[in-house]
Amino acid sequence: QYVTLTNPGTEAIAMPTVIVPVPPGFQAAPNVSGQGVASTEDVGSALHIYLTELAPGATVELRYKLRAGAECDVMQRPIEAYAYYDPSVRGSSAPQRLTVRARPAPSPTK
Questions:
Q1: Consecutive 10-residue runs of the chain (110 residues): their mean pLDDT?
Q2: For an engineered disulfide with 89, which of 35, 65, 83, 98 has Cβ 3.0 to 4.6 Å away?
């Protein structure tokens, strides 16, 4: 999975923070990749991703993984992003449907 974060403004955003909801039955993998990621924090129900800065007009793609414990079909709440030091600067995604199905068993070899 990934989230794209864009700064449409004319000023840099200090410490943009992205909150990725983790639906029940899922776990967030500990590693997040993307330009400017300073740290991450798994709080169980959400994955917090902290960036150092987002330049004016810049777009970054943050890659993360959610692992499902079982088959499911759930709605993930919107991902939210805001400026850590100015929470009035914010945005969010639409909710997403996450569907997990079991892999078919491998065919027996003869």
A1: 95 97 92 94 96 97 94 95 95 95 79
A2: 83
